Write the structure tokens for this entry.
Amino acid sequence: VASRPQSQAKTGRSMASQARQRAPFRLLSVCVATSALLLLAWASIPTTSFSVGSSPRARSSKLQSVTTTPPFAAAGEVESSATAIFAAGGLAGFALAAASLRQRALVCRGATEREDSTLEFLSKKHAREVGEIRKLAGDIIPSDWDDVTLLRYALQHEGAPAAAAENVKEVLAWRSGEGKEIVAAAKDAIAKAQAGGGWDNTPVFAAAPHSGKISKYITPAQMVVVSTKAGDLVTCIRAATIDSEALMKDVSEEEMVQFFIYAREVNSFMADLRTRATGRVTRLIAANDLTGVSKFPDQAFQNALTGSAKKAVTLYPGYAGPTVLLNLPWLARMLVSVLTPLFPGAVREKLKFARTPMDYMKNLEDIVREPIRSQFVDDLQAVLNV
């Protein structure tokens, strides 16, 4: 019995020794994790998609995208007896990726991806919620808002029809009030763009708020759009090529926010048309090519991104797909490969990392021309499937 205190003391000293030995490793782990978070924050600044433009065509071929009129332009083709819808252009901010973590991702992996993202499947799955949203929102819902429109709100607020109904009210209030001019301008521009039976991007860009000044800084050299094999619209941006400091000397933060929201209005309109044409719920994906990034964008530019991103989550619910980071610095890629498995599932669904460089992308516009386009689309799909 007398030996027990000695034994316990010995055990205590042993545990303390082990703790001292582990302390440096714990400190190292904390430092690595902190460094990773800082690198990812630095790398992720411009990643939220805002797109403008589309080209509806009815052709029998695989999905394609090309650039045309800068800074917002794309065209595409899809096997469909209905009109094929394609969107273009965009800009991104990490704020939307973070804000949209509360939405349920539409991402489905492997062979089940197409089935789970079909309009028929999702409409049946959320039929009860859509009915409750319509009932809770009441008579304020416009006659042209069908169940496909309300499905986006059910996807954004899955299992919470009351919150979805409040979101509907917020959106309708904005569209008839503060955002009335933007909504009207986008609708008129889209009608003009489609008047000839194809797509003329000129009126869409011309109607964008403050586009005359912004077009000097955002062109297809900074961003393009491609389609995934599944049909989602991917806005790709090379952030390092945007002179954000000079841009923000020409426009105010509020003007940039208006520009981004107009772009989102056109983009979501095109996503809806494509959803109805293809029978698959189209997502808007942002791919940020970090080639050459060495510093944060101008603070005013970041503020505009953050402000418009927060608005977009509320005003255009249920559209945002994941954000993809491409061509990270080598240290960031190494840390991502180690730490990604530790991220919460919601983060992994909304934030994707390419773990190997895509150094074949010498210029961003290369990815809309063959053979690089096919290679890029395959590589991007592999990243999305992880």
